[in-house]
Design a protein that fits this description.
This is Replication-relaxation. Pfam families: Replic_Relax (PF13814). The chain is α+β, with helices and mostly antiparallel strands. The chain folds into two domains: 114 residues, Winged helix-like DNA-binding domain superfamily/Winged helix DNA-binding domain (Arc Repressor Mutant, subunit A, Orthogonal Bundle); 153 residues, 3-Layer(aba) Sandwich (Trna Endonuclease, Chain: A, domain 1), CATH 3.40.1350. The protein contains eight helices and eleven strands. The strands form four sheets. It has a five-stranded mixed beta sheet with strand order 5-8-9-10-11. The protein has a two-stranded antiparallel ribbon with strand order 1-2. A hairpin with a 2-residue loop joins strand 8 and strand 9. Helix 2 packs across helix 3 and helix 5 crosses helix 8. The longest helix is centred in the middle third of the chain and has 20 residues. The two termini are 25 Å apart. 25% of the residues are buried.
Length: 293
Amino acid sequence: MDTLIPDNYPAGTIVKIGKKRIALDGKEVLLLHLLAEHKFLSTQQVAKFIHTPTRLFKSSVRNVTLRLNKLHGMNLIALQPGRVGGVYHGAEPNIWHLAKLGHDTLEKLRRIETNESKKPFKAPTFTFAAHRMAINDTKLILKHIADKHEQVQLKDAVIEEKSWRYYTNRAGVATSLRPDMYAVTTRGQLEHHWFIEVDCNTEAPVRIIAKCNMYLDYLICTQDSQDGWCCGQFPAVLWVVPTIKRRESLKRHIAENFPDFAVGQPFIVITPQELPSLVAEGKLGKLTEVTYE
């Protein structure tokens, strides 16, 4: 999984940006790294990333809210107000994202540690914010599963650009496979690799089938080198969809377009409530609500 802060990161730090002197403790730097990695997060999502089962979730939310407000007051992060009537059960949450000063602060710390050149700040675009937050929710479910089940480990979970695969397609053209996420989980002695697509019920089935064909193209073009494969096996392609109705629709379209493939090979379509039993027990169809209390 992406390392948010190196193990030897100091408990606190002071950064000078121009004439500004920015003093941060380790947890505040952690929050900046979280927003840099995940782009858009609600307060609840931030709390879930740092929450541990040994404390009450309400306490984590309260602690995170205070720190986010402090960073906001320092102009290190920015807030996009939510809208009533959005995709999140009638009201979209407020969305936190990294501000330019926060980006510059992290870049200054990174340059001190690695001596690498500064990466330019890119202002966020909110066109796909809901999709990115849904991807973050899926990553949080994987983290929660690993926290709850001793036999499960989340060895890796990288999002978007870091999960992409570059290869030469059957036409001899350099191209890329672009999943929403790539994850590696273990259950006991078994290790599972997943390409994950997070569906928000906004794309027509024909687009989903086109993406399935891209995975098959990648499979065919990399089967000799097995580049990106796990122990000689092609990673499962997991579609996480918002409703059972959407799940059944996509399963039907995939079965009609790929009749030679057995169910679940290599494409698996599930709802978020089915993810815990799939990862922790290897079972499909069992619904489990993820709770943090």
